[in-house]
Amino acid sequence: xxxxxxxxxxxxxxxxxxxxxxxxxxxxxxxxxxxxxxxxxxxxxxxxxxxxxxxxxxxxxxxxxxxxxxxxxxxxxx
Length: 78
What we know:
Blueprint: E1 3-8, E2 14-18, E3 37-39, E4 49-50, E5 53-54
Antiparallel strand pairs: 1-2, 1-3, 4-5
């Protein structure tokens, strides 16, 4: 089930809603309970992990070095 992001056009609060597939009901704002909401464009997060290499922390770490420097042992490479 996806989580959608919405903004209430009445009270201007942002909120998320877990929506089942085929959901046909109107989505209500949890703050003011109004139905005048706008679905926001959003992205999803993914955690990718492969042994010692990891993209989960926003950087690619590898004991082999990154190739962007000559030392192969800088903070970017680790």
